[in-house]
Automatic annotation (TrEMBL):
Residues 8-109 form the YqgF/RNase H-like domain. This is Putative pre-16S rRNA nuclease. It comes from wastewater metagenome. GO terms for molecular function: hydrolase activity; nuclease activity. GO terms for cellular component: cytosol. Keywords: Cytoplasm, Hydrolase, Nuclease, Ribosome biogenesis.
Length: 148
């Protein structure tokens, strides 16, 4: 059985080539909430914005969702870009970076927003979906017994 995550903040990322949702959570509650969505160019965020988030939240570790594979089991281009993003996070910020599956997290985010009376509609709500999906990713990692 893996060791439980240590008490403190963790940041979760829902990676995308155009947008990266960000959430903060604590393992003591197992909960997370979306905090922002970063614009990205081919998966590369404004690293100064990422640094500001890390400075503000002072996380113990970072958690990046792993996009699903193609139906034939091969890795998708988004998954490869997500791997590169995770490696760059680790290299730039000297924090542990963990990976966890993100299958269906955007759908779960839409359902969660709908359940609280804030249904996501249209392009302007994509940012809320992405940051909420990052919260789903982080909560999944906590539930799976994520370790720092």
């Amino acid at each position: 059985m893996p060791e439980r995550a240590r008490e403190g903040h963790y940041l979760g990322f829902d990676f995308g080539l155009a947008r990266i949702g960000v959430a903060v959570g604590e393992p003591i509650t197992g909960g997370a909430r979306g905090v922002t969505t970063l614009q990205a160019q081919q998966g590369a965020p404004d690293w100064d914005e990422v640094a500001a988030l890390i400075e503000h939240w002072r996380p113990l570790a970072l958690v990046v969702g792993i996009p699903p594979q193609h139906a034939d089991g091969t890795e998708s281009p988004v998954a490869r870009a997500s791997d590169r993003f995770a490696r760059r996070l680790a290299g730039r910020f000297a924090l542990p970076v963990h990976r966890t599956g993100e299958a269906m997290t955007s759908q779960a985010a839409r359902q969660r927003l709908h359940a609280i009376g804030r249904p996501a509609r249209g392009r302007r709500d994509k940012h809320r979906i992405d940051s909420t999906a990052a919260a789903v990713i982080l909560e999944h990692w906590f539930a799976e017994g994520g370790t720092a």
